[in-house]
Amino acid sequence: MGSKLKSLGLVGFGVVVGVAASLQYSALAQKMQGLPLPLEKLSEFTEVFGMIKSDYVEAVEDEKLLDEAINGMFGALDPHSAYLDKKAFKELREGTEGKFIGLGLEVGMEDGYVKVISPIEDSPASRAGILPSDLITRIDGVPIKGLSIDDAVKKMRGEPNTKITLTIARKTEDKPIVVTLTRELIKQHSVKAKVVEPGYAWLRISQFQEPTLDDMVKKINAIYSQEPALKGLVLDLRNDPGGVLPGAIGVSAAFLPKDVAVVSTNGQVEDSKRTYYAKREFYAGRVGSDPLAKLPAAVKQVPLVVLINTGSASASEIVAGALQDYRRATILGTQSYGKGSVQTVHQVTDETAIKLTTARYYTPLGRAIQAKGIQPDLRVEETADGDGFNALRSREADLIKHLSNDKEAEGETTDLDELEEEKRLIELAKKSVPVEFGSKEDFQLQQALNHLKGLPVKVTPLKKLKAETAANDANFSPAKAKPNAQRN
């Protein structure tokens, strides 16, 4: 695994009781050679370290002080750069492989509690009957309100065959539900698909992992075996936080012309100035067969709609941006997260690493996604009455010390009308119940199908849309631009 990690790319932002990010792995030692060191500051650090060791009220271990010093350096950088101790590095590797030790829950936060987005099929959580929208209020009898999502997830992770008790609040039950689960190895399948009605299919990618491309090929072939004359396909990237970069390139390449540019990156070091193409070596390596060769030729021409929302980040934004730039698909939904940076994982020891932001990435037309996101071609809310949940989600631009977009100025203001609208949506969200993606109640999916059939689509009213898109309209016009193979 170690050698493989030194060359893997990752692009994302979240945790799913697993992991997601935009990533590459690389060796570190060679890059330190020749760099000037601030000897005066190093001397000051040594003196402070010594005073803490000798004068602090109680003894502090050297390892703890040094780990915290490293973490302090990353605190001065952007939110996606971090020191990965033994446990964090192990979890990162597990997440990219699509397997981890846990309960099998995709979770978020609501009102300070852990909210179940979806149980993973054939996991301890699904077998125990845990349902989407359940709120986890206690873990092993201890209230969890106020914990961060990361801390709550850590409590649910653990060693295999160990037990954990969850207290669950369910809207249809008057009393809390208490279930005891046994942690086990979870194999997460990131691709789902089905024919939603004759001639039309739904393909969902929930996270870009190492097996994602092979899984997608199998699902598409299954669709075509059921519907040989497919009239339209909906690619669902909603709430997809990202994952490995080769997966994003491969998914894009499945629908784009051969060998076109998919994404480019630019950073301080020469290695970060690259363009990635729809070629096998960029998504499947230079050795071995091409997994996309197994796809039916018709997939290159099938009418395509891509669904995105504020939970769509990084690798999913790479796919949406590339398909939008080449006008291969109609992007439908709400503005994406805006995580347009690449993190490189430098393995420091056998069990530790650092995750460092090394580049911004750009769509084939040279658009920078960082702190901005992808604007859909058709803005459609998550429900027919308005988008309560999407308005409550934070975006990259909301993070403290987020990396700026290098192609436009920061600091947009929010007017009173937008603030009032946000208050209205918050109240709406308190009354709303999220629907299952891919179901008949999935409003955005139904609008995507309408678009594929040439029927009217219920888009966001123009009044609400103006304030959100005015700045973006000036920066990008697909009709006037042509994709570039390189970004200089």
Automatic annotation (TrEMBL):
One of its GO terms (molecular function) is endopeptidase activity. Belongs to the peptidase S41A family. InterPro entries: ClpP/crotonase-like_dom_sf, CtpA/B_N, PDZ, PDZ_6, PDZ_sf, Peptidase_S41A, Tail-specific_protease. This is S41 family peptidase. Coiled coil: none annotated. It comes from Undibacterium baiyunense. Keywords: Hydrolase, Protease, Serine protease. It holds the Pfam family CtpB_N-like. Residues 468-488 are annotated as: Disordered. One of its GO terms (cellular component) is outer membrane-bounded periplasmic space. Residues 89-157 form the PDZ domain. One of its GO terms (biological process) is signal transduction.
